[in-house]
Amino acid sequence: xxxxxxHVPESRCQVGGSVHIAGDQAHHAARVLRLxxxxxxxxxxxxxxxxxxxxxxVSKDRRSGEWLIEARVxxxxxxxxxxxxxxxxxxxxxxDRLAExxxxxxxxxxxxxxxxxxxxxxxxxxxxxxxxxxxxxxxSLKQCRRDWVMDxxxxxxxxxALARCEAAGWRVxxxxxxxxxxxxxxxxxxxxxxxxxxxxDAERSLFAARALSLVRxxxxxxxxxxxxxxxxxxxxxx
Length: 238
What we know:
The structure is a single chain. With 238 residues, the chain is of the alpha/beta class. The protein has two domains: 4-78, CATH 2.40.240.20; 86-235, SPOUT methyltransferase, trefoil knot domain (Alpha/beta knot). The chain has helices at residues 23-31, 97-108, 127-144, 158-168, 201-209, 224-235, and strands at 4-7, 18-21, 40-44, 49-60, 67-78, 86-90, 112-117, 151-152, 156-157, 171-181, 189-193, 213-216. Strands 6, 7, 8, 9, 10, 11 and 12 form a seven-stranded parallel beta sheet that branches.
């Protein structure tokens, strides 16, 4: 039997208490899923808290016309973030391919995604696009039953990205066809994926100066969204 999953950020629900599901999720549950009293649901806050609940009411506000679902919390689990974690910093492909990449990265188990602005990048996602990517990450959390939502960070230049990785203590590997085969990571790792125009000579010199590992993700040239997802899956520890 399929148990429907919902995302309620900062729900802070306790066993025996109630959790409220509203907005688009409640509308979809009531009108499309036909959720009814007595059915079991899973509520995640996206930060490791997972509640098993039973629906106690499905109602519609007469004034606003909005649906509201209330559920009783029967059990609660708190799960730590995945460790070691995979963080993907990648140039952005054009159009809907970026959304597909973010959804794929979430399914592959990446802990975070940061748009990388390299010398040959052609897409620098703005605020509205980033917010859409964050919504996609939340939808993916429900679909693939992640306990922690994949974080979507603001774009960074390559220098700033490397500085963040160093500050966080992450190992850094760079996707490149000249590298060795990618292997599962044993500690928190950042995967850098360049633009379709490839890394510039200056960027390659930077990688060499920092003694960063180059990894090959397969026998053929891949699009950005393919390389990012394949790379995340290859170095994921599970």
